[in-house]
Amino acid sequence: MSGDGLSGPVFRGRRRGLMFVLSSPSGAGKTTLSKRLIALNPDVVLSISATTRKPRPGEVDGQDYFFLSEKAFKQKIEAGEFYEWAKVFDHYYGTPKGPIEEALDEGRDVVFDIDWQGARVLAEAAPDDCVRVFILPPSLALLRERLTKRKQDSEEIIRGRMQRAKDEIEHWQEYDYVVLNDDFSRALEKMSEILHAERLKRVRHPWLEGFVEELMKEE
Ligand SMILES: Nc1ncnc2c1ncn2[C@@H]1O[C@H](COP(=O)(O)OP(=O)(O)OP(=O)(O)O)[C@@H](O)[C@H]1O
Ligand SMILES: Nc1nc2c(ncn2[C@@H]2O[C@H](COP(=O)(O)O)[C@@H](O)[C@H]2O)c(=O)[nH]1
């Protein structure tokens, strides 16, 4: 069951999975945080996006992203295979529908690492299921340092990502929660707290309606 404290021997109702949407400027730490969050909560599923950008060293197709040609990506847009898609840093990125719908229907929570455009689409499409978290870096200087130390991108690419950082941060007020990723462990703890509190929300437990109705008939 969902491990949310409402599923003991008496409370057997199922809940629908929630969409845990993370955005931040590139390099603030959402990939690292989401992977650690899933390691701590193995019942949570990571949404694997499709992209037309080239794989970084060590990235695995089907694990980090589905790496597609622009032609294949556009065919999938036409076929309606994406929940949402956007152009970010001159490349296409999109969230495949199939695995997400399956996971949510099974009551599993899904983590999305997507930009503000995608977060907005998901929140409009599924306002009751969506929880949006914006991750802030402690400063732009430290953001640049993280991108540099990651050793995955050229100086030119890092410059482009830094130029777009403020455009992304401008959307912070569209999010339900903001987590400052200064100390990593503290940020991770806050993410876990948000996830666990959100799982308990009444709207995520429609079975409670029937349960309370029965309870009120007693005596
Ligand atoms: N709290 C932290 N303190 C120091 N370094 C951190 C912290 N959090 C993450 N990092 C490091 O910063 C780098 C960027 O993190 P990460 O790749 O998770 O960012 P991201 O937001 O997913 O970026 P992108 O949008 O480009 O995918 C990584 O090398 C990661 O180990
Ligand atoms: N709207 C979407 N944005 C996405 C998706 N997958 C990733 N992203 C965002 O793109 C940038 C760059 O990612 P990188 O892996 O090249 O560093 C980052 O902000 C991601 O959040 C998606 O499916 N939809």
Automatic annotation (TrEMBL):
Domain Guanylate kinase-like: 17-196
Principal subcellular localisation of the protein: cytoplasm
Entry superkingdom: Bacteria
A single GO molecular function term of this UniProt record: ATP binding
Segment forming the signal sequence: none
GO cellular component, one term: cytosol
Chain sites annotated for binding ATP: S24, P25, S26, G27, A28, G29, K30, T31
InterPro entries reported for this sequence: GK/Ca_channel_bsu, Guanylate_kin-like_dom, Guanylate_kinase, Guanylate_kinase_CS, P-loop_NTPase
EC number, as in UniProt: 2.7.4.8
Keywords assigned by UniProt, alphabetized: ATP-binding, Cytoplasm, Kinase, Nucleotide-binding, Transferase
Catalytic activity, reaction form: GMP + ATP = GDP + ADP
Protein's cellular compartments: Cytoplasm
Job description of the protein: Essential for recycling GMP and indirectly, cGMP.
Similarity annotation: Belongs to the guanylate kinase family.
Protein name: Guanylate kinase
Gene: gmk
